[in-house]
Amino acid sequence: MSTAIWWIRRDLRVSDNQALAAALSRAEQVLPVFVLDPKLLNSSYVGEKRLAFLYAGLRALDNDLRQRGSGLVVRSGDPVHVLTDLHREVGAGAILAEADHSPFARRREQRAARLLPLHLIPGLTVHSPHEVVKADGTPYTVFTPFSKAWLGHPWPGDPLPAPDWIPTLAGVMGEDIPPSSPLSVQIPFQAGETEAQRRLDAFIENAVYNYGDERNRMDLAGTSGLSPYLRFGMLSARQAVAAARQAEAQATDAESRRSAETWLNELIWREFYIAILYHFPSVRQTAFRPALRNLSWVNNLDDFDAWAQGRTGYPVVDAAMRQLLQTGWMHNRARMIAASFLTKDLLVDWRWGERHFMQHLIDGDPAANNGGWQWTAGTGTDAAPYFRIFNPVTQSQKFDPDGAFIRRFVPELVNVPNEFIHTPWKMPSDLQTQIGCRIGKDYPAPIVDHQLARERVLSVYKA
Q1: Is the pTM of this model over 0.85?
Q2: Is 216 an active-site residue?
Q3: What is the pLDDT of residues 43-73, one digit of tens each?
Q4: Pick the CATH number of 290-462 from 1.10.579.10, 1.10.10.10, 1.10.260.40, 2.30.180.10
Q5: Catalytic annotation, pick one of 7, 150, 329, 350
Q6: C-beta of residue 83 within 8 angstroms of C-beta of residue 95
């Protein structure tokens, strides 16, 4: 075979890329192709910051390819039509692509496979969703049995090194990669495989051993910060898991080992949610649990807008939502607190929040985002019990004890004493005047009483 097309989607990397390796093994020349699909670019779930990160990632990938004698061909249009044209244009013998598992991606792959010599290669996950199933072939719907089965699967081999050279057919024309919007300057993540590897190495060297204690602290840099890179495949799942296994093996004490195991567990959660979406695609539209598909949501637009803008009067919720708006990312603990507040305190449909997150998150992933929202709302697989309702004050006190996270993103509260940082509405009026933070004027009063809201949502869920 003289030429193979490498169809890139969520694998913006050259190391440990099994689709690229398969293309290089089958053909004398490999043509790297990325298709800008209008259906995705114009989706109501699209996020401007995520697009900016994608475009920056495409430029980084193109640079990595050029260092290996290749280059990225970018074209716009329906991927099946674009690939059909390219297949004829270059006389490709095969099209290689990393298999995706979302409903949209699978439909697109099925269309392409009917018309083209498409070969799907694993790599999005360490173990494919159809591999980690029960003995009778049915899928797991509870995380703990899934994780045990996942851990019991044979290790698929160490990550592949990046190829030194990628022979590529010359003269194939592409389009310019779209420029990143001005929003990209606010993104605290540099796109590309090089930065992904740097962050992974830095995390494994030290922070992973404190992960168990610090991952829930919103005021600390206790997480890996790798989710945007896993989202776009600038880092492979196997590279992350291999690093977690290495950290676990090199841990010097039991506590450090448990921290490394905790991070590995989070990577398995990612694979669990991908498997759930693969086996139960309807979760994108409706609750997994049939009994909770017709909840009596209030869906007050003013409440939703206050939540979305970070103007609820609950500092930790507002800090979380403003972190999302400003940076395109949100700490995982903050995601749970914000999601619980929307669904439980305000009784707004979890699908409203799911869409809002997808419109702003750089790491917005259909499987993980849906899984997280349904877990918090109590409507999904392996969900938190419906009566588990996060108290925004106690969560704030526990995971942002000095209010550093709050003050960073809610500047109105920067001068509020620690005593009142989690409950500013309790400040005496003279103190409010003294520090320039009058509740109801400079910063909103709580839009809902948490205790009353708790009683309301419990009655709705019980019904």
Answers
A1: yes
A2: no
A3: 999 999 999 999 999 999 999 999 999 999 9
A4: 1.10.579.10
A5: 350
A6: yes
